[in-house]
Write a structure and sequence with these properties.
alpha+beta; nine-stranded mixed β-sheet; 4 helices; 22 strands
Length: 352
């Protein structure tokens, strides 16, 4: 009886192990989204400012990505609104659906630069504490409060007017790990969280995400994109284009891209030193004349699926053998021994 109970426990334990191993994830990816409300006194302005238009330009490089965001914010009120907004330096999003968890961890933003109506803004770095932070992040259901510090600036929104906010930042994509089951690969990973736009007055009336490949990155080095069928591809220009309108973004609208592979001896400090050069390049990219007829809508592979590796398959086989094979062998051995013993006893009884 004890052996049967032990066998059942092993089966249940095995089911949990294999269930957890199958959960996909992208860890250590570089990226982020839009800025947030920050101080408690500004919470009275929540949902009063609309992000009317959003234009995101992304330059992908081997090991890192440069992002430029342009946001046209409309104040629907009759009064001027002043508020402090900002970016968390580190954050985590967790998505659970039908027992399948996806955890996305964001690296810090580097060399963040902000302009409001063309004027450069002074940034303040503050620790993330409940005393000086409003819970705007908790308005997003998938957010896990793990931010450590914030970049903050003050914005003035004139009544019934549009304020243009521009941001530039660089993220490290070389430390990304894509894991599926017992297999993992070091693809570069970039994520842009459109979902953060939901904390402003919705919808986003008009938006565009324009992605340009640099270095030796080509379409065949894109391993996967989520959502899989929103981007048009211009192979001659090595670019991707996604236009949207009247969008109230949720988790499924977040953009996840895996590309290339881990860069050995990657010099991140050298990249940061040249941030001015990369910001000049992305300014040029953001001014590219776009003819939508040059882009063909393409379906991409799932960025969370990486196939199997020989060592991952071997590990699964060994675990399967240890968890299932050994108990089965033990049970079969016991059954065979019992049969042999019973037959010997019967034979002796017949002979006597």
């Amino acid at each position: 009886m004890k052996k049967i109970v032990l066998f059942i426990v092993l089966l249940v334990w095995a089911n949990n192990i294999f269930g957890n191993a199958a959960q996909p994830g992208i860890f250590g990816a570089g990226g982020f989204g839009k800025f947030y409300l920050f101080f408690p006194e500004d919470s009275i302005h929540f949902k009063k400012i609309q992000m009317q238009e959003e234009f995101i330009t992304v330059n992908l490089y081997n090991g890192f990505t440069v992002v430029k965001g342009q946001y046209w914010m409309y104040n629907h009120q009759d009064d001027t609104i002043k508020m402090k907004v900002g970016y968390p330096l580190n954050a985590t999003y967790i998505y659970d659906q039908f027992s399948t968890a996806t955890e996305i961890r964001f690296d810090a933003l580097y060399k963040l630069k902000v302009k409001i109506d063309g004027l450069s803004q002074e940034l303040i770095q503050l620790p993330d504490t409940m005393e000086n932070r409003w819970n705007s992040l908790e308005q997003i259901p998938n957010y896990n409060n793990s931010a450590t510090d914030w970049y903050i600036w003050e914005t003035t929104f004139l009544p019934k007017s549009v304020t243009k906010i521009e941001v530039w930042f660089i993220v490290n994509t070389n430390e990304s790990l894509v894991r599926q089951g017992y297999n993992n690969k070091n693809h570069n990973g970039f994520i842009y969280v459109l979902e953060t736009g939901s904390i402003w007055k919705n919808p986003i009336e008009k938006g565009r995400v324009f992605i340009h490949f640099n270095d030796d990155i080509t379409l065949d080095k894109i391993h996967g994109i989520k959502p899989d069928s929103i981007f048009g591809v211009s192979e001659t220009a090595n670019t991707l284009l996604y236009d949207f309108s009247n969008l109230t973004p949720g988790f499924d609208d977040n953009i996840v891209i895996t590309y290339g592979s881990w860069v050995e001896n990657f010099n991140w400090e050298k990249v940061i030193e040249k941030y001015d050069k990369y910001y000049t390049e992305i300014d040029k990219t953001s001014k590219t004349e776009i003819n939508k007829s040059d882009f063909e809508l393409t379906k991409f592979d799932n960025p969370y699926e990486i196939g199997s590796t020989w060592w991952g398959s071997l590990l699964m086989f060994l675990l399967f053998f240890i968890i299932y094979g050994i108990p089965i062998l033990v049970v079969l051995t016991i059954v065979i021994v019992i049969i042999v013993v019973v037959r010997k006893k019967r034979k002796k009884k017949i002979q006597s």
